[in-house]
Amino acid sequence: MADTASTAGTELERQLEEMLEIEKFDPPASFVERANLADPAVYEEANADWKGWWMKQARELSWFREPTLDVNESNPPFYRWFEDGKINASYNCLDRHVEAGNGDRVAFHWRGEEGEERELTYSDLLRDVQRFANALKDLGVRKGDIVGIYLPMIPEVIVSMLACARIGAPHNVVFGGFSADAVKERMEFSEAKALITVDGARRKGRTAPIKEQVDVVMDDLETLEHIIVVKHSGDACEMREGRDVWFHEICDAAAPECPPEELDAEHPLYVLYTSGSTAKPKGVLHTTGGYLTGVSATHSYVFDHKPGEDVYWCAADVGWVTGHSYIVYGPLCNGATSVMWEGAPDYPHKGIWWELCERYGVTIFYTAPTAIRACIKWGAEHVEKHDLSRLRLLGTVGEPINPKAWLWYHKVVGGERCPIVDTWWQTETGAIMITPLPGLVSTKPGSATRAFPGVLADVVDEREGNPVEEGQGLLVLKRPWPSMLRTLYKEDDRFVETYFSKFGRTTYLVGDAARRDKDGYFWVIGRIDDVVNVSGHRLSTAEVESAIVSHPKVAESAVIGQSDELTGQAICAFVTLNGDLAGTDELIDEIRDHVGERIGKFARPKRIIWADDLPKTRSGKIMRRLLRDIAEGRALGDVTTLRDAGVMAALEDKIKEEQAQEG
Ligand code: WTA
Which of 303, 310, 329, 501 has its CA 20 to 30 A from that of 226? Predict the structure, then answer.
């Protein structure tokens, strides 16, 4: 990927260029001295007895009944972990810290867009979660019922998730950037009984009328009995008698004490929809004991987290898996003090993240490469204005990081003293799988380095599944791990087919291409399926295509991910219009808005190319590979399998025309 140009010609640019020569960065001695894991033998030990290693991690949690069984492998890929154990996630996140005398510790320094501050201690959270859990029960929500959550980054989202966990009602959180249509679809698929949402969500000084938007689509959903509304923006909204209730009112009316349900380790904790190769999102199902084991162990070892000392900030949104695992469950299990920021990284100003790091004394900071590239574009001065001397560890997640962005992060944000953990994982893996251990592993810019202890990752060839020593292959995980997805909600067959059919039922197919270097380090290259990664947001090309085609003027569409300096990949759509309609700028806006309504603004195509016809094989399959070549200005690959080779020539002309107009 091209590197961002805004440092061009500066002294910083010259220094970064020079640093590109450095192959490896060793953990600083001062860091190693105090690291949570500093004994290199851990890799071998965990490898030799991986079940025992995970059992040891599981024992760090509080169980109502300690498990004696590690993993049940009798019916792969339907693995079961710690299945005779009894546990509750909200108990592990809250009660046990309060019982240990740490109730006054801050769990979240919450900061609102307009500068409001709320400090939530572990005791505060426990109080609020118990009341809301009782309120849910009063509404008739029972163990096993699915509860939808569609909320912005406000404390109530944490309270809602933990209250569901407390009573054993799996949550189904939908990222606030998704449209109401997308929420409805996810509520429908999961047959959610209740939805927790908000009157209005604030974004960069404006308010989006969320409840109003939800009302428009949610009417005909029979399974959805209740909509619980958090009062946040204060904007008036309609409340439908018999269905809608205010969050604060039902909490006030509920009893204060709600003992946690003693749940089986394999009780479902949540469903989280993510994009796959087809238009229908996949409901990734995670259960309780194994998931908590994975997220708490990785949070402690990968971030070297020290409870009571560190101030930790994962600057993701709770609506993605990164938020589930590393804002909510991992950090709270470990008694962390976190920062939670309601808004965007550039509002009210482009240095807000760093202002908050200074204000709360952040020591560990975790974000996505796309955000780092945005910061590079905005300029180092926004970072340098602030005192970041308390930072001691940095992390990235979501997409491959280009070495220049890694070095900028290392130098400008980390002051060249903080190790960077480039963490590879997925919604499906639940927890970090490939990552440096910051006190043990030397890092190389752009590589996620080694598999986490106990995890067996490999790069294999497409055909036979044999290990690839040199060059690119498919990334696979060859052993079960506790935080792995258990299935796709209500779609067991699709689960097996998607992840465990290519190389058999014990090899998990990741869906990414990768290579290994001479030190055995992993370099993840990107998706091999039709999943696009826009600013770290996973989208399926099929999902966007189906949204575009649902526009009345569109006949057909093919969507590809095109490399993009800022967002990693950007959506580029080839669109064929109905009849002899002409493509106009107004129509481009219309189609983009339409996709925004169907999926969410972040899914709107950056580029739309009008196509009279699309390149197809003789069997009618669209050849996206050729579209990618043409969009990125590469020489066309093999076109002999095309039904009509003339289609590509016509498209090439279109693109030349587009460029002539721009240039
Ligand atoms: C990509 C996000 C390279 C990868 C936690 C994966 C990465 C997909 C990295 C999962 C990384 C995530 N280096 N690529 N450090 N981390 N990815 O489910 O393609 O939203 O398959 O989970 O993001 O995205 P998801």
Answer: 329
